[in-house]
Amino acid sequence: MDTKTTVISEAQLQQQFAFCDKIHAYWVDRDTTPKAYVETYGCQQNEADSEKLRGYLAMSGYTIISEAEGADVVVMNTCAIREHAEQRVFGNLGALTHTKRRHPAQKIFLCGCMAGETKVSDRIKKSYPFVDGVFSTHHLWQFPEILWNVLSRGKRQFYIEDEAGSIAEGIPQVRDNALKAWVSIMYGCNNFCTYCIVPYVRGRERSRKKEDILAECRELIAGGCKEITLLGQNVNSYGKDLEGNGDFSDLLADIAALDGEFLIRFMTSHPRDAGKKLFDTMAASPKIAKQLHLPFQSGSSRVLKAMNRHYDREKYLELVNYAKSVMPDLVLTSDVIVGFPGETEEEFEETISLIEQVHYDSLFTFIFSPRTGTPAASMDDPTSKEEKSRRFDRLCAVQNGISEQIHQNYIGKTMRCLVDGTDKDMLTARTEGGRLVRFAGNADLIGTYQSITITGATTWSLMGELTQ
Description:
Elements: E1 6-7, H1 10-29, E2 35-40, H2 44-59, E3 63-64, E4 73-78, H3 83-102, E5 107-112, H4 118-127, E6 133-135, H5 143-153, E7 157-159, E8 166-167, E9 180-184, E10 186-187, H6 198-202, E11 206-207, H7 210-222, E12 227-231, H8 248-256, E13 263-267, H9 276-284, E14 291-293, H10 301-306, H11 313-326, E15 331-338, H12 345-358, E16 362-367, H13 385-408, E17 414-423, E18 426-431, E19 436-439, E20 449-457, E21 462-466
Parallel strand pairs: 1-8, 2-3, 2-4, 4-5, 5-6, 6-7, 9-12, 12-13, 14-15, 15-16, 19-21
Antiparallel strand pairs: 10-11, 17-18, 17-20, 18-19, 20-21
Helix pairs in contact: 1-5, 8-9, 9-11, 12-13
């Protein structure tokens, strides 16, 4: 693999816009307004990528719809983190044979992280002949070209070359939400955790220039955006590949200094690169949410070393303790893997004890899923699936109890929340820490910050009422 980042030039991007024009003309000649559907699996980075896919499609004359039925183009933007996610994609992909049978001209594409795996592209070539194109994350910027080649040549297209990755500024975006926006600040990963496929399918770390990120944030704020979430596989590594650009903490401070009423969130942080400067920067600005997603993965130092995480239990706890000391109201969430190869019962208990010591607001919990091509996939794994499931259930029960306790402590507090939508006959809002609040009110409050007094709580959400 070439490890040098490719910067997509303005001329190259203009070529893609020219393909958009060709596609638009193709449909005009047929006196048809085409429809497109983009289905997204996985993380927020995939959501941000799908916004660009929809942007290209809109520029090409497509109306974006919410289901595959009746769509002229279907794009499945996939995730490769866990086996279950991959199997779900293949199941849903197989179901598209029915929509294509009813609409033979429908074009189907698979992209995202799964498309970067050779085993997946080979399987598509052999067993899914109705799929018209496959392209990896490295080739997303070329989607108009790929789509045009399918339409004009009638031949399947595979853009799956292995490379370090690219950065393309200026791709149009169709965002799902005017109030909240994902902003990618970097792509790829250099950490090579032994269980993770991401560095192999998304390439090496590469940071966007600060001025491009600030320009995007200014545009979002001017358009009424109230929450900006900065994205990266490891946001703490931001800027390491850019000379004189500053680090992630500097970027946070610069965005927070922009004019307007908005809140900044970010994910995901890697404990290896998090530190006091980051937490001090968060604590200093009212525009930076006091919310931190800091994956620990295991409470055992031995397992962390086997995972190639580059920190131990003591280092992690040191970080958490400092973060809480400068941000007493910090909402802390994390990821944890149960059943990593070789994890003993005692090491699992170390994970439980860390959860009980830290008291996370919530956790994203996973049973280890071997990914072909990663070192952990070939590690000796004597623990049975049944035992892993037992540990998983116990861990979830412990965390659910903690989450419910924390939420109960919100009752009686008045909090400033962004009203962001509806749920049946109730309005929904988010606290600064990202906690979901349901309350009664008029829909014209959506898009505003309101003071809400918390009146009830469950494990997963809060109930409240507007403060008079």
